[in-house]
Design a protein that fits this description.
The protein contains eight helices and 42 strands. It is globular and about 105 Å long. By secondary structure, the chain is α+β, with helices and mostly antiparallel strands. The strands form twelve sheets. Strands 3-36-37-38-39 form a five-stranded mixed beta sheet, with no helix packed on it. It has a four-stranded antiparallel beta sheet with strand order 4-42-41-40, with no helix packed on it. It has a four-stranded antiparallel beta sheet with strand order 5-6-7-8, with no helix packed on it. α1 (about 1-25) packs antiparallel against α2 (about 30-50) and α3 (about 55-75) packs parallel to α6.
C-alpha cells in the first residue's frame, strides 16, 4: 500500500510538472520543469514495478536539480531552498526502509532492501550545499557610513526645541532627525515600554480595505497630538500617556473612499495671541470628508474664528464633487502665516474628478491667499466666484517641506488619473505630473520643476516628503539641498534653490509599445543615486515549491515586460517597481551633521491589465473603493486591473528580499550598505522568525545618538539600527501592524522617549489596532 500511495503522489506531481513545464517551454521558458515532470512520472512507474533503479534515477535527478539551481541562482539559500526543498523531501521519503524493502532483489527469504547510497549521497550533497548557502547572502551589501561631523551646527529647519517634534518630519525641513542623544547605540537594547494608549478608533466592518493607521505624533511642551484613521484628534500627556482631550469630527464612512487614514495633524502657535487665550495655539485636523478643522490645542474645542465657524471646506472651487473622491490624508504645512493644503484624488475612478490644486489659506482666518493648479499653473491669484479649478489635474497627497528663508514650499506631485492612460493630457499635465515643484510662498508661482517620470503610465507619483538639508561640497561650501525619494527607486539630490541636480541625472532609453491610442516616452530620467532593481528575468521567479514557482514563471512569460517602464497593455503588463514603490510616503531620514541618509527600499512587483469599457460590468452593490482589483476609470475607454504579482498561494512571485534598509553618504552619492529587513513571522501560518527581507510601508527616524528607528515591515515589530552600519540593535514586538513613522521626544527632566503607532494597514494585510506606544530606558 505504501509504495502504491507513493507512486500516486509522484505520478500526480509529475503530471502537474510535465503539463506546466511543457506550457512554460512553449512560452520560451526553462526546460527544467518538463524534465522534472518526466522524471517524477518515470519514478512513479518504477515504483509500481518495484525496481531498485528508482533510487538511482531519483538520485541522478537530485544531482541534476542541484546543478541547475546553483547555475541559476548561485548560493542564495532563499532561492535554492525553494527550488530543492520538495525535491529533497521526496528523496528522503524514498529512502524510508519500508519503501526500500519493496524495491530490492528477491531472495528465498523475501526481498532485500534496495541500496540506499545512490540516493543518499546526492541527498547529502544537497543538504551540504543548503547548509553552506545559509552562511551566504549574495544580496547583502555591508559597509559603513562616515562618522565625521561634517557640519557642527547644521540648520534643522525651524525653531524647534531639541526635545520637541513640531511637524510631521519634526521641522519644516522634514529631516526626521532628532538632536537627542540619551538613547544611543550603546543602550538602545535596554528600551522598555513606558506607557501604552489605545485610541478606541478601530477598523469597522463597513470600512474600505485600505483603512490604515499611519500617523506620526507631534510633541509640543508636555503634549502629544495625534489623529486616527477616522480623523479623531487626540491630545495625550507626554509623560503618562493619559488622554487630555479627544475631538471627533464625525467624518462618517463612504465606500467610495480609497483610503481611510490620517498621517498627522498640524500645530500652530499664533505669535500675536496673548498666552493662555482661547486658540492661541491650534491643531489643524484634515478629515476624510474634505474638511480642515481648527482646534484649540489646550482644550480640543473648535476655533470659531477660522474659516466658517472653525471649518474650512476643501471642495470649494472644484469642478466636480462626487463624495468620497477627494480628501486630505496628510497634514498641511504652515509657513509665513499661511496654511498650505493639498489633497488626495481617488486614483482611476473617473475622468470627472476634483482638481489637484495646491492652496494657501490665511492660517488665522482661512481666507484663500493663492492657488496653484498644475492644470493651469499661471493663474495663482485666488479664483473668483463661479470659477473652478482644472478638473483632474495632478494632485499632491503626501507631505510638503518648506524653506522660509528661500521663500519656497516643495510639493511632491502625483499623476493625472487615469494613471495608466496618457491620451489627451495637456502640455501642463505633461510638464508637472510626477514631479517635485518649488512654489513661491508669497505668490504660489512655480519657481522650478523637476520631473521624475515622463508621460507617467504607471502611477509613479512622487510619494514622499522632500527632505531638506545643507550638503557640503568638495570645496567645503554648504549647498542648500533637497533629497527626493521616488517610487521608481531614484533618489534625486537637487539644489533646492534651482532644482538643478547635485548628484547627476541622465536620460536613458525606455521601452515602447503603448496601446494604439497612447504613446510612451522614448527616454526616462534616472539619478546616479538609485535603488532601482535590476530588470527581472525568469530565474527571479519564486515560490514555496517548484510547482508554484513554475506557475509564477508561466505568469511571468505571459505578461508584457521589457524592463522598467513597459507600457500598460491589454494582455497584462508587469510593473516593477510596483505601485507601492521602492519608496513611498514614509520618505527617508537624514542626519544633517554627518550628511548621511537612512531609508527602506522596498521591492514588490505589480501587474496591470487594461480592460475595454465594453467589458466592464456595472458597479456592484456594496462595492468598496480600492486601488487594487478593478479600477473603473469612468469616462475613459479603458479600466484597469491592478494588484501585486502573487503566486497561486498568495506570496510574491519574485524572489526575496522584498524589503531592505540602506544607508547613503549624501556627499558622494554612494550606497554604504543595504541589508534584508524583516521576517516572515506574520506572513505564514507558523510564526517563523526567518529574515527574508519583507515588504514594508512607513518611514524611518534618526537620532543624534547614532540610532535609526523603523517599523513599517509587514511583521509587527519596531526596530532600532546602528545608523553607521545598518545592523539591527533592538526590536520590540508590536500588538498590531506598525505602518507608521516613529518619533522621539524628551521631557523637561531629560528623559527621552520613542513613540510608535501600531494600527495596521489594510492593503498589506497587517493586524489592525489602535495603539500608541512609548518606550524609554529603565529608570
Amino acid at each position: 500500500m505504501l509504495i502504491t500511495i507513493t507512486a500516486i503522489i509522484f505520478g500526480v506531481l509529475g503530471l502537474v510538472l510535465a503539463v506546466g513545464g511543457g506550457q512554460l517551454l512553449m512560452l520560451g521558458g526553462s526546460l527544467y520543469y518538463l524534465i522534472a515532470g518526466i522524471v517524477l512520472l518515470l519514478t512513479a512507474v518504477l515504483l509500481l514495478r518495484r525496481r531498485a533503479e528508482t533510487l538511482w534515477l531519483y538520485g541522478l535527478f537530485i544531482v541534476g536539480s542541484l546543478t541547475w539551481a546553483i547555475w541559476e541562482v548561485g548560493f542564495d539559500w532563499w532561492q535554492l531552498g525553494t527550488r530543492g526543498g520538495l525535491v529533497v523531501v521526496l528523496g528522503l521519503w524514498l529512502m524510508l526502509p519500508a519503501l526500500r524493502r519493496q524495491l530490492g532483489p528477491l531472495h528465498r527469504r523475501g526481498r532485500v532492501a534496495a541500496n540506499v547510497w545512490p540516493l543518499a549521497l546526492p541527498a547529502l550533497a544537497a543538504v551540504v550545499v543548503a547548509v553552506f548557502s545559509m552562511t551566504q547572502d549574495p544580496y547583502d551589501r555591508s559597509g559603513s557610513l562616515p562618522t565625521e561631523q561634517v557640519a557642527a551646527a547644521p540648520s534643522l529647519g525651524g525653531d524647534v526645541p531639541d526635545g520637541d517634534w513640531h511637524q510631521y518630519g519634526r521641522t519644516p525641513y522634514g529631516q526626521r532627525y532628532s538632536p537627542l542623544t540619551q538613547i544611543n547605540t550603546e543602550n538602545v537594547d535596554q528600551l522598555e515600554v513606558a506607557w501604552t494608549y489605545q485610541t478606541g478608533d478601530v477598523k469597522l466592518p463597513d470600512d474600505v480595505g485600505e483603512t490604515t493607521y499611519q500617523v506620526t505624533p507631534l510633541k509640543v511642551g508636555n503634549t502629544l497630538y495625534i489623529c486616527t484613521p477616522h480623523n479623531w484628534a487626540i491630545a495625550i500627556d507626554a509623560e503618562t500617556g493619559k488622554e487630555k482631550w479627544k475631538f471627533d469630527p464625525n467624518a462618517g464612512l463612504n465606500p467610495d473612499r480609497q483610503h481611510q487614514t490620517c498621517r498627522g495633524v498640524t500645530y500652530y502657535a499664533d505669535p500675536a495671541a496673548a498666552a493662555g487665550t482661547s486658540c492661541a495655539a491650534r491643531v489643524y485636523l484634515p478629515t476624510s470628508d474634505a474638511r480642515l478643522i481648527a482646534l484649540d490645542a489646550e482644550t480640543g474645542a473648535i476655533c470659531p474664528g477660522f474659516a466658517d465657524a472653525g471649518t474650512l471646506r476643501l471642495e470649494q472651487g472644484m469642478p466636480y464633487n462626487p463624495a468620497g473622491y477627494y480628501y486630505s490624508t496628510s497634514p498641511p504645512v504652515i509657513a509665513d502665516g499661511k496654511i498650505i493644503v493639498g489633497g488626495a484624488v481617488n486614483d482611476n475612478y473617473s475622468t470627472q474628478s476634483q482638481s489637484g490644486v495646491i492652496r494657501a489659506f490665511d492660517v488665522n482666518t482661512g481666507a484663500l491667499i493663492w492657488n496653484w493648479d498644475a492644470g493651469n499653473p499661471g493663474q495663482t491669484q485666488p479664483i473668483g466666484p463661479g470659477q473652478t479649478y482644472t478638473a483632474n489635474s495632478p494632485n499632491s497627497w503626501s507631505v510638503f517641506s518648506v524653506d522660509e528663508q528661500l521663500g519656497l514650499v516643495y510639493i511632491p506631485l502625483g499623476n493625472q488619473v487615469p494613471d495608466q492612460l496618457g491620451m489627451g493630457r495637456s502640455a501642463n499635465v505633461e510638464k508637472y505630473s510626477s514631479s517635485i515643484v518649488a512654489l513661491d510662498l508669497d505668490t504660489g508661482a512655480d519657481r522650478w520643476v523637476r520631473q521624475t517620470v515622463h508621460h507617467d503610465l504607471w502611477d509613479m507619483d512622487v510619494p514622499a516628503q522632500p527632505v531638506l538639508l545643507d550638503i557640503t561640497n568638495a570645496e567645503g561650501t554648504p549647498v542648500p539641498a533637497l533629497v527626493g525619494p521616488t517610487k521608481q527607486g531614484d533618489i534625486y539630490v537637487l539644489d533646492r534653490r534651482t532644482g538643478e541636480p547635485i548628484i547627476p541625472v541622465k536620460e536613458i532609453p525606455a521601452p515602447g509599445g503603448a496601446i494604439e491610442e497612447d504613446f510612451a516616452s522614448p527616454t526616462q530620467p534616472i539619478s546616479d543615486l538609485s535603488f532601482r532593481p535590476k530588470t527581472m528575468v525568469e530565474s527571479d521567479m519564486w515560490g514555496l515549491s517548484i510547482i508554484d514557482q513554475m506557475m509564477c514563471r508561466i505568469a511571468f512569460h505571459k505578461l508584457k515586460y521589457e524592463g522598467q517602464y513597459t507600457p500598460p497593455s491589454l494582455e497584462g503588463t508587469l510593473v516593477y517597481p510596483g505601485n507601492f514603490g521602492t519608496f513611498n510616503w514614509g520618505s527617508v531620514a537624514v542626519d544633517p551633521e554627518r550628511q548621511v541618509m537612512f531609508g527602506m527600499p522596498t521591492y514588490l512587483a505589480f501587474t496591470s491589465r487594461l480592460v475595454p469599457r465594453s467589458e466592464i460590468a456595472p458597479k456592484g452593490e456594496g462595492e468598496k473603493g480600492s486601488e487594487q482589483g478593478l479600477n473603473r476609470n469612468e469616462g475613459a475607454p479603458y479600466g484597469v486591473y491592478m494588484g501585486p504579482f502573487l503566486s497561486p498561494i498568495g506570496i510574491p512571485c519574485q524572489a526575496p528580499p522584498w524589503g531592505t534598509v540602506a544607508g547613503v553618504d549624501l556627499r558622494t552619492g554612494k550606497v554604504a550598505y543595504q541589508h534584508r529587513n524583516g521576517t516572515v513571522y506574520d506572513m505564514t501560518p507558523l510564526p517563523l522568525p526567518l529574515k527574508v527581507g519583507v515588504p514594508g510601508i512607513g518611514g524611518p527616524m534618526i537620532t543624534k545618538g547614532g540610532v535609526a528607528f523603523l517599523g513599517a515591515a509587514v511583521d509587527d515589530y519596531l526596530r532600532a539600527y546602528d545608523l553607521t552600519s545598518g545592523i539591527q540593535l533592538w526590536e520590540a514586538r508590536l500588538p498590531a501592524g506598525g505602518q507608521a513613522t516613529p518619533m522621539t521626544y524628551a521631557l523637561d527632566n531629560g528623559k527621552q522617549y520613542v513613540v510608535m503607532v501600531a494600527g495596521g494597514h489594510g492593503s498589506v494585510g497587517t493586524k489592525p489596532g489602535d495603539y500608541v506606544i512609548a518606550y524609554k530606558l529603565p529608570d
